[in-house]
Amino acid sequence: MRNKVAVIGAGNVGATCAQRILERGLADVALVDVVDGVAQGKALDLAEAAPLEGHDCRITGSTQYDIIRGAKVVVVTAGMARKPGMSRGDLLEANAKIVGSIIPQVTAQCPDAILITVTNPLDAMTYLAWKLSRWPSERVVGMAGVLDSARLRFFVAERLKVSVQDVQALVLGGHGDSMVPVPQYTTVSGVPITEFLPAAEIEQIMQRTRDGGAEVVKLLKTGSAFYAPASSAADMVQSILLDEQRVVPACVRLTGQYGLKDLFCGVPVKLGSKGIEQIVEVSLTDSQKAALAASAQSVRQEMQALDALVSHAAA
Predict the structure, then answer these.
(1) Catalytic positions, please?
(2) Domains delineated in the chain
């Protein structure tokens, strides 16, 4: 019997994530969306593509959560995209309501699953999912660092005219303007990019990474990135289902690592069948430690705002 993966949210990210999972032959997929017909229609379309793509994985779609029962991994992509004139606080409040409605359904149907959050603001939504699920923190992880690192890998490969397969990269911190790309751990076949490029040019690439999502939004004019986010989530699903033990940057609960405690932030982790199997601590320069602390502080402020929203709603 194949594994099952649940994808909550059948928008561009969710539907493309489901497609990636199916076409890699990783698992059957249960796709859920609150809008009637959306998950069902996309599921049928993807199912009809199976004979052409050469896989036998099955996909079902519904507005009801009973179809996700028994899923080993649950990917939450549902949420609003940030619109013009919308503050980060507005987005936090709107998506907290959405994620808050999803998590009880997930815990009821898949009490032993591993949860991957994709909804923004990513770090705060991962914290909310952990808090509401009451699951062990190793089973709740946010997808951001894989995406940010993939963008950095592409930008480096493009600049140096090398294969993206030879480039590895590391981005730490919160998913946003305060993310911390780390040049000494960004390498081409093991050689740090500091051996290839001057500091000023490296900083330009790092800044483009920070602005990677905004660059796509500006070009699209309506909508936001979804191919790379979907592939990033699918990569995490693959590492879990196949117990690959891959070391990837991801948003996890820190309990003292990097001098940070009781918050969710992006750091390197070992990802396997049990979820987060190890948090990897790497050496950082003083300036990188300060940047990571600043990034973590911005995440903590979002977590505090989220706690205030939850307390107000419960009052």
Answers:
(1) 175
(2) 4-142 (3.40.50.720), 145-304 (3.90.110.10)
